[in-house]
Structure formats: C-alpha cells, structure tokens
Design goal:
The complex is a heterotrimer of chains A (297), B (354) and C (331).
Chain A lengths: L9 E2 L5 E2 L3 E12 L5 E12 L3 E5 L6 H8 L7 E11 L5 E3 L5 H7 L4 E4 L13 H12 L5 H14 L16 H13 L5 E5 L7 H18 L2 E6 L2 H7 L2 E6 L2 E7 H7 L3 H7 L11 H5 L4
Parallel strand pairs in A: 5-10, 5-11, 8-9, 9-10
Antiparallel strand pairs in A: 1-2, 3-4, 3-6, 6-7, 11-12
Chain B lengths: L1 H13 L14 H10 L3 H11 L1 H19 L34 H37 L1 H16 L2 H11 L5 H12 L1 H15 L2 H8 L4 H37 L10 H10 L2 H4 L2 H29 L1 H4 L2 H32 L1
Chain C lengths: L1 H27 L4 H12 L5 H11 L7 H13 L14 H36 L8 H10 L2 H15 L21 H38 L2 H8 L4 H19 L1 H19 L4 H10 L3 H29 L1 H5 L2
Helix pairs in contact in C: 1-13, 2-3, 5-8, 5-10, 5-13, 6-8, 7-8, 7-11, 8-10, 8-11, 9-10, 10-13, 11-12, 11-13, 12-13
The chains are: A alpha/beta (297), B mainly alpha (354), C mainly alpha (331).
Membrane topology (chain A): Peripheral membrane protein
Subcellular location (chain A): Cell membrane
Protein name (chain A): ABC transporter ATP-binding protein
Chain lengths: 297, 354, 331
C-alpha cells in the first residue's frame, strides 16, 4: 500500500530518502479571535511534521500562518483562542505529549526544551536592558538548573560560535548588534537546549538578501548537525522551494495544498498556489515578460 | 543618541505611558486586532469609547455637573463677600445650605463663585500652557537643527526648576494680583513638560511619508506645521491641555492657600486659606474646609478620567486586553461548564443503560 | 561617560539660570523691593549698617549709578562665596544659618516619603499592569481621584480626623517644643520626631503614589505587548523572572526618566504641607520669608530648593544611566 503523500520521508542533499517518524501532529486545529464579529484565523488545519524535516508554511500576510505557529506553541493571547483541535508532540523517547493538556509548570518546562521558536523581526525579540549573556543564561538557569556557571559560559560561547557570532559578543547589548547578528543570536538561543522542533517565523524577511543567504546556510548546516525539524514560515515561496522538503500553502486560514517542494514547483494543483508561483519574477527569461504577461516565474 | 532614549522615555512618561499613535503594526496575534481598530477615525473611536467605557461617561458627566454648578448657582445666592451673617453657622441653620464662615460669609455662595474663579484660572492657564508648549515643542521638533536645540534647552531648564517656589518668588514681588496675573504666572511656569512631549511627537511625525511629500511639493514650513502636523497631534495636545488645567487648578489652590493667590477674588483656594486663618480645623467647622477640597478633587479627578480615556483612544494597546481578557475567561468558563455538564449527562446515560 | 558629563553641564547651566533669575526678577517687576525693605528696616527701629545696605543693594538693586553688569558680577561673586545675605526678619542671622537649620528636616521628611511613595507606586503599578483584566484594574479610577486631591487639603483632613478628633497625632511642629528645647541626639527625641512626622509623610505618600502607580501601570501594559516578552514566554522562563527582569526593568525606565516632572509636584506639595503642619522645614521658611518681606531669605531658600532638586535629578540620571545600557553607549 502506498504511503499517503503527507507521510513521505524527507530528502537529503545527496538524494537519499530518509524514512522518518512524525515528531509533531496537528489535527483539526481551529483558532478564532473572539471579537465582535469573530475572526476565524485558522480553520480546521491538520498537518504532520516529521523528524528532521523542513516544512515550509507559505501564504500572504494575514492568512493565519503566524497565528497557527503561535497556536501550536500555546502562545496565543486574548483575544485569540484555540477553538478546536489537538496538537501532539512525539518525543524521541517514544512518549506522546498533548500540548493542549499542558498548563503552568508543565507547559513552562516543555517550552524551548522540545520546541523552540525564532520570531519575526528579531529587532525587538531581545530584552534591550540586559546583556546577551544574561538572556542565554536565563534559558539554562530555568531549564537546566544543574549547570554550573562555567558550563553555562562554555555552552553559550559554543552556541555563538556555531551561528557565526564572535563569543566576545556575550557582553553586548541588543542595540549594539546589527540586524543579522541579532537574528543569529536568536537562532543560537533557539538551539540552546537541542530542541527537536524549531518554528521559524519569517526569520530573514527584515534582512538584506546577502545576509539572508548566510543565515539560511547556517540553518541548513545546523539542521544537518543536530537533526531538528523546522517549520519555516514565510511569504517567500521561491525561498521555500529552495530549502524545504515539503510545503504547505495557506489561504485565509486553511491549508489549500500540502506536498513536496518538487511537486509544488512542477505540478501545483490548487489555483492559488499556481497564482503564487507566477507572482515572482525570475532572474532568467526575457526582460519585461513578467509585467506584461506574468511569465517567467 | 543617549539623550534620545531618555527623551523618548520622558515623553512616554509625561503622556501617561502612551506611545506614539501610528506605529508600524506587525502581524502578531494581538497586533492584528489593534491594526484593525486603528483604521477607525478618532471621533468614531471617541463615540465608541463613550458607549463602551463607563470611565469616560462618568468623567464627562462630573465635569459638566461641576461647571453647571459654578455657572448657574451664583445667580441664586447672595454675594460671597457679604459678611452680614452670623458667624460659623452649621449647614442648614438660618437658611444657609452649607453654613457660614467665621467672618459671616455664606459658604455655598463662596463655593459657587469660587468655582468660577478657579475654573477661569484653570482654563486660562491651561490655554497659555498649550500655546507655549506648541510653540516651543512642535516648532522646535519640526524645524530641527539649532532652533530646536535652543528651544529644547530652554524647555529643559524651565522643566527642572521647581514650579511652586518659582511661582512664589514671582508672586511675592507683585503686591496687587489679579486673576489674570495668577493665570499668567501658572501658565508661564508649567508649559515645559508639555513642550517636551509634543516635541518628541513632532520629531517622529517629521519623518513620516506624508510630511516628506508636502516638503517636496514645496509647501512652507508654517503651513506644514499647521495643516499636517498639528491636526495629528490634536489628541495628544488635548490630553496635555486637560492635564494642564488640572495642574493649574491645583497650583492656584496651593498659591492661594499660601496667601499668594489673586487678591480680592474668591476661589476654592482662597476659601481654604481663609479656613485655615479662621482656625476652622480646631473649631471643627468641617463644612467650611471640606467642600472646596472635595470639589477640587472631584473636578481634577473627573478631568483625569477623561484624560485617561483619551489615552486609551490614542493607544490601542491599552484597550485590547482588558475587556477581551474577561470575555475569553467567560468563554473558557462556559466551555468548562458545558464539558462538565456533558460528562455528567453521559454518566447519567451510563447508569440508565447499565 | 559623555552622558554624565552632559547632564552635569546641563544642571550647572540650570543653576546659573536660577541665580540669574533671582537677580533679574526684583529689578524687573513692578514695585521697588529695595526701598520697601529699607523703609521697613527703618521703621523697625533697627540700625541700618553699611553691611546691611550693601547686602540689600546686591540682592535687590541700587539707586546709585552702578551698572547692572557690575552689580551682577558682585552678586555672582557673593553667591559663589556662599554668602546669601543677611535675614531681615531674623536679624542678624545669616541666611545660610537659617537654611542650614531647616534643610535637614525637609530632606529627611520629603526625601524618605518620596522614596517610599516612588517604590510603592512603581511596584504596585507594575503588578496592576501585569494582572490585566482582573479586579486590579478597578483601583485605577480611585487612584486617579487621589492624585487630584490637593496635598494640603488632604493634610487638613488628616489633621482633622487624626489629631483634632481622634487625638492620635500631634497637630503641629516637628517636635514637642515643651519637652525638648533644642534638637538632641537621643532615642526619645527620635521617637518624638517620627511621631510628629507621620502625618506629614502620610500626606506626601498618599497624594503622590497615584501618579507613579498610574504611569507605571500604563507602561507595564504597553511593555507586555513587546516582542521580547513573547520571546521570554516562549522560552519557558518563570513568570517571576519575566515580570522583574523583562517587564518591570523596561517599563520602569520612563518613570525614572520622568522623575523630574514628578519631583516638581512633590516639592510644591511639601512646601504647602509644611505650612499646614507648621513643620520646621525649608518650605515653611520660605513662606515666612515672603510674609515678612525678607527677600534675601526668600531668594536664598529658592536657590537651595532648586539646588536640592537638581541634585536629586542628577542622582536619578546616574541611576538611569546605570540601568539602561542604551543611554551609556550612544554618545
């Protein structure tokens, strides 16, 4: 029997297919903004994330992809609320954890340890009044109370090195770092506890393309090394075609297409996906053809 | 710039913690909502706020009531200077609703006339404050450069010098003080804080697109200031005005209490001064010194409530959350209840079928 | 470093401005203070020594031909030497002596009360802002009204309730002048001082705490919608840690930066309050001076009050530079 499309393994650079277990399962998730009249930001969304996979989540602004990410992580704030559905995390030791059932202490302990997040626009994601070191140490102090100060220092320096930031920057404050550096620090923080899933919400949108490329290469390299799964949220579909194993396209709160990157590139099924694909001008092809006829995507 | 961050914080504090109105809204869950509401015009929001929030309605109602009191009642009472009544009558005695003072003046008459004096001074001083702060703040903030540096320096110096002592020094040199003079002194010493807040806002507006467009189109700076910038500062300026009025009323009360207020007029402050000089406390004449203070507090509090509501209109972040947090808790509570009800219903079912 | 130097220079400039104001005002405003003063002296029957004459001329202007500039320099000179003149109403006491007696009372009372009020206001305000949408929000209208209550009226009320009616606290004074002739370093005296200072301190705290509470609450609410708070929550940090280090530390910055404005109100209130309680501080001294047309004393107190306020602001600025790294590094 053929496995359903959603359960296909992820691809490696050398073309070999790696059979993978699911690490995160979302079933029939619906999220509303409880105002007058109610806004249905996410409607009946189901998806499965496999171990080590990069799942791209594409769509325009306002389609609900960020809301979905926040919902998965139980970060929704009033007036947003999870109206229906379950999110299950499959730990690598075999246990299943229902995210909806976590509250208070258990939720706090779960966060960052199993699933971490890199937010949109790191411009403001760092506390402006305490040092980078303090913010990295925060993570360790909370989740690994057994670590000594020396261990925390070593680990922090190692993390910064891994993302390509000079360890001396531990003494710096957020405003002393460039945008690209801040984003790298955020990624380092997200890696700190070796999570199994990283959710990245437009991590490179606010940066220039050269810096963007550098950061993406870091992410790919780190994933090779640590084998965490990534949900990569962006409106930049061509980018996802480059780096994702599978892509989910969202429109007005629903997933309209979910397939491997190749299939979407060559044979997009849903008309919205097709429109999205043709909305990006390409570097090849005749000049002006995009504007006049929409060709060349 | 080091001073920049302090200025921002100063402005944030002075405007009651509200931050610049039109910020770039990103697509985060709460922000989506704020973005939605932001598109509605200020006056529409005022109307919405009026219906939704009891604070604004209560505040406005109280202000109107007190103003009416000071405008209408004086027509029905004796002159506040008439001293032909017996001294220190308790409320209700001899036809005096609020009793009389030690010198024999009717307290109600003094209260009503005094209200006129206090309000007049408050409004005038508030107006002077707003005009001066717009001049020093907005003009400096928009034009920038040396003009701005100098104006800002003057504002900072005046801000730091303690207000009441300065007012006392002024007042002490002038023997005959009219209501207008007192209002002038109050206004001249209190505009600096407002100026800095408005300047901070004007500076951020200066870099907005529509202002840049006007500059490129060749409009004169004064026209830009009056047509583009000031209308956008109106809510903030209104809040500063109300704040200034409250401060002026309190300031006048303090000055008068010290005997440095308007000579020859009655205000709530002069009433309190008379009360202290007439040993109202030790004589237990509570009807004399309590009403003026209560009215000052009520008027000041009411104006502050209105101010607070304006703050919530300007800064949507202060609004979204309180009511919605409650509604989410409500929804969750109902959800839990219905689940419990469903569970017990199923248990009942089981009992029936087993 | 540059930050602190700039602030210090600014305060120096402000002090100079205050001194100059003292010089300019009596010469500018209607009424001739110098003549009034000298006439009053003559009426009092006191002898007008050349030293007194000189002092009055320096402060209030002369009628002889000396240019304004030379007067100004002489005036600046005597200020820098610490000579604030001679008090007319308490002749022959030096102004500096009188101020020296009154200053500690004001510093202790107003200083302590302000610190208590600030800390209380900021912490409670932060807590109310943290717990949005619960009962805590209902305190807000109450504190709004309390903020509008005139200090001195509140003082009158407190005296009426606690001193006149209940007799728990003394009505006037800084200490019991029947028991102690002069301030002494004894425990009994200290207890007496605290007993006398309770109502005044309570007045200051009650009327100023509302302002800081409100401001802090608003700022906390604003701060809670910042991205780094969401990040901190996503990191699974403990709520207490997020509250103190991520929320309060950022939300408190405007309150500290805006201490200037608030302090102005506190000073104003305490002057009037000292009058109500007949408390032997700077405020009362200033009012006495005004009532007695003792301009030298009045100007001197004004300068000292200004100096104290500037010093307090500078201390707050240094504190701000300590806790906000952005201020230290940029320029």
């Amino acid at each position: 029997m053929n496995p359903p499309v959603a359960a296909q393994g992820s691809h490696r650079a050398d073309g070999a297919v790696r059979a993978a277990d699911p690490v995160l399962t979302a079933r029939n998730v619906s999220i509303d903004y409880e105002v007058e009249p109610a806004v249905h930001a996410v409607r009946d969304v189901s998806l499965t994330l496999h171990r080590g996979e990069i799942l791209g989540l594409a769509g325009e602004s306002g389609c609900g992809k960020t809301t979905l990410a926040y919902g998965i992580n139980q970060l929704l704030r009033p007036p947003a609320a999870l109206k229906a559905g379950t999110v299950t995390f499959h730990d690598h030791d075999g246990t299943d954890i229902d995210l909806g059932g976590l509250h208070g202490e258990s939720l706090r302990a779960f966060r960052w340890d199993k699933i971490s997040m890199v937010f949109q626009g790191a411009m403001n994601s760092l506390n402006p009044v305490i040092s980078i070191r303090a913010q990295l140490f925060d993570v360790f102090t909370t989740h690994r109370p057994g670590m000594s100060k020396k261990e925390k220092e070593e680990r922090s320096q190692e993390l910064l090195r891994k993302v390509g930031v000079d360890p001396n920057r531990l003494d710096s404050f957020a405003h002393q770092l460039s945008g690209g550096m801040r984003q790298r620090v955020m990624i380092a923080m997200a890696l700190a506890l070796n999570p199994q899933v990283m959710i990245m919400d437009e991590p490179t949108t606010a940066l220039d393309v050269v810096v963007q490329r550098g950061i993406l290469r870091e992410i790919m390299r780190l994933r090779e090394e640590f084998n965490f799964a990534v949900i990569f949220i962006t409106h930049d579909l061509p980018l996802l075609l480059e780096i994702s194993d599978r892509i989910a396209v969202m429109l007005q709160g629903e997933i309209v297409e979910l397939d491997t990157a190749e299939n979407i590139y060559e044979n997009a099924q849903h008309p919205y996906t097709q429109r999205l694909l043709s909305s990006f001008p390409s570097l090849t092809g005749e000049r002006g053809s995009f504007i006049r006829t929409g060709e060349g995507a | 710039m080091a001073d920049d961050i302090r200025e921002q914080q100063l402005a944030a504090q002075a405007s009651g913690g509200g931050i610049a109105p039109a910020q770039i809204i990103e697509e985060t869950p709460t922000a989506v909502l704020a973005g939605k509401v932001d598109k509605v015009g200020v006056w529409r929001r005022f109307g919405q706020q009026l219906r939704r929030s009891p604070k604004l309605a209560i505040g406005l109602a109280m202000v109107v009531a007190i103003v009416l009191f000071t405008v209408v009642v004086p027509f029905f009472t004796a002159s506040p200077f008439a001293l032909d009544n017996p001294s220190l009558l308790k409320p209700g005695e001899g036809g005096h609703l609020l009793g009389t003072t030690q010198l024999g003046a009717d307290v109600l008459a003094q209260l009503a006339h005094g209200g006129r004096g206090s309000l007049l001074i408050g409004l005038t001083a508030g107006a002077i404050t707003v005009v001066l702060s717009v001049l020093f703040g907005v003009v400096g903030g928009y034009i920038g450069g040396w003009t701005d540096e100098i104006l800002f320096l003057i504002s900072s110096v005046i801000l730091v010098i303690p207000g009441l002592p300065l007012m006392i020094v002024f007042s002490s040199y002038i023997p005959g003080r009219s209501i207008w003079l007192i209002a002038g002194i109050l206004g001249i010493t209190s505009w600096a804080g407002s100026a800095i807040v408005l300047r901070s806002q004007a500076r951020s507006l200066r870099s907005r697109d529509y202002v840049a467009a006007s500059r490129v189109a060749g409009e004169s700076p004064w026209r830009i200031i009056f047509v583009e910038i000031i209308p956008n500062l109106l809510p903030l300026a209104a809040a500063q005005f109300l704040f200034a009025v409250v401060a002026a009323i309190l300031g006048e009360a303090g000055l008068s209490f010290l005997g440095l207020g308007p000579t020859g007029s009655v205000t709530w402050g002069t009433m309190l001064n008379d009360a202290q000089l007439g040993a109202a406390l030790t004589r237990g004449a509570w009807w004399w010194f309590i009403p003026p203070g209560v009215l000052i507090a009520l008027l000041g509090g009411a104006l502050s409530l209105v101010n607070f509501s304006i703050d919530e209109i300007i800064n949507p972040k202060l609004r979204t959350g309180s009511a919605q947090a409650k509604s989410v808790r409500e929804a969750r509570r109902k959800h839990k209840e219905s689940r419990r009800a469903a569970k017990s219903a199923r248990a009942e079912q089981k009992k029936v079928t087993s | 470093m540059k930050f602190y130097v700039r602030r210090f220079a600014f305060y120096l400039a402000t002090l100079w401005f205050a001194v100059t104001l003292n010089f300019v005002l009596p010469r500018l405003l209607p009424g001739d203070p110098a003549t009034i003063l000298l006439q009053k002296l003559a009426r009092q029957g006191g002898e007008v020594t050349p030293a007194m004459l000189r002092s009055v001329e320096l402060l209030l202007g002369t009628s002889d031909g000396a240019s304004v500039w030379s007067q100004y320099w002489s005036y600046l000179g005597s200020i820098l030497r610490g000579d604030l003149g001679v008090s007319i109403s308490n002749y022959p006491e030096q102004v500096t002596t009188l101020i020296g007696q009154a200053l500690p009372w004001t510093l202790a009372l107003v200083g302590l009360a302000t610190i208590i009020s600030f800390v209380l206001g900021v912490l409670v305000g932060a807590y109310v802002g943290w717990k949005r949408g619960t009962w805590a929000d209902h305190i807000i209208p109450a504190t709004t009204f309390m903020q509008s209550v005139p200090y001195f009226w509140l003082a009158l009320l407190l005296i009426y309730i606690f001193s006149v009616t209940l007799g728990w606290f003394p009505i006037i004074g800084g200490w019991d002048t029947w028991t102690f002739d002069n301030p002494e370093a004894s425990f009994a005296f200290l207890k007496d001082v605290i007993w006398h200072g309770t109502l005044p301190a309570l007045t200051i705290i009650l009327s100023s705490v509302g302002g800081w509470l409100l401001g802090m609450r608003n700022m906390t609410v604003s701060t809670l919608s910042e991205d780094y708070i969401t990040t901190a929550e996503a990191k699974g940090l403990r709520p207490s840690r997020i509250f103190m280090t991520y929320a309060v530390r950022n939300a408190a910055l405007p309150s500290i930066a805006g201490f200037t404005i608030s302090l102005g109100f506190v000073v104003a209130g305490s002057i009037v309050m000292e009058q109500v309680f007949t408390y032997p501080g700077l405020g009362r001294l200033m009012i006495q001076a005004v009532q007695g047309k003792d301009y030298a004393l009045m100007q001197g107190v004004f300068l000292v009050i200004t100096l104290t306020v500037l010093a307090a602001n500078f201390i707050m600025d240094m504190f701000y530079g300590l806790i906000d790294p952005r201020a230290r590094n940029n320029g």
